[in-house]
Amino acid sequence: MTKDNEEHILHLLFKQFKTGNEKAFEFFFNKYYDHILGFCIQFIYDENEAKNITQESFLNLWKHRENINKPKGIETYLYTYAKSKCLNAIRHNKVKENYKNNTLNKKEQTLNFEVLKSMEFDALSLNELQSLIEKSVNELPQKTKTIFIKKRFDNKKNSEIAEELGISIKTVESHMTTALKMLRIKLASYLSSIF
């Protein structure tokens, strides 16, 4: 079959697709399904979710077929729709991951508090220790404090902090080293007097 014949057949199928012919839709589904699925898997690394997005892309293509003006528009529509849905899925998963990390962080803080309580500190000592920790964190240099809070309390990765603040990962690591060193010095005398 010559290229001209292929294009002629493609145009005929496209016209039938535009008028709601399911066989023509099936032709384009078979032509693009594996490409769209592979594209989605590359984005989200989840085959089941990628299959759902691919299927949704074709359903929406069918619903909005009157807006497609040429055969090449089918492929463009599918990739654009799938890309948008993959980005939404990535954002949604990131929110879920942040929630999970925050929940774990809160549980860890509660557990740390329970451990301190079980060590038979009296309430005054615990309150003093918490106040001292807060005061020590507040006395860190502003940028070091910001990075320390994002790392320890917001449970963010060094790469996320670097991206948010527009600095390198090495700079984040350097600020964390400084923060931990300063906090160890400030808290050392208090902790040694307890133990």
How would you describe this protein?
This protein has about 200 residues and is mainly alpha-helical. Helices cover about 85% and strands about 0% of the residues. It has eight helices and no strands. α6 (about 140-150) packs across α8. It is elongated.
Radius of gyration: 28 Å
Mean pLDDT score: 86
Shape: elongated
State the order of secondary-structure elements, H for helix, E for strand.
Answer: HHHHHHHH
Structural class: mainly alpha
User: Runs with pLDDT <50, length 5+?
Assistant: none
Please count the beta strands (DSSP E, at least 2 residues each). 0
Q: Tally the helices: what do you get?
A: 8
Percent strand equals under 5%
Distance between the termini: 87 Å
Share of helix, binned: over 70%
Q: Sheet with the most strands?
A: none
Notable characteristics:
195 residues; single chain; mainly alpha
Short description:
With 195 residues, this protein is mainly alpha-helical. Helix content is 85%, strand content 0%.
Topology, element by element:
Blueprint: H1 3-18, H2 22-44, H3 47-63, H4 71-118, H5 123-138, H6 142-152, H7 158-165, H8 169-194
Helix pairs in contact: 1-2, 2-3, 2-4, 3-4, 5-8, 6-8, 7-8
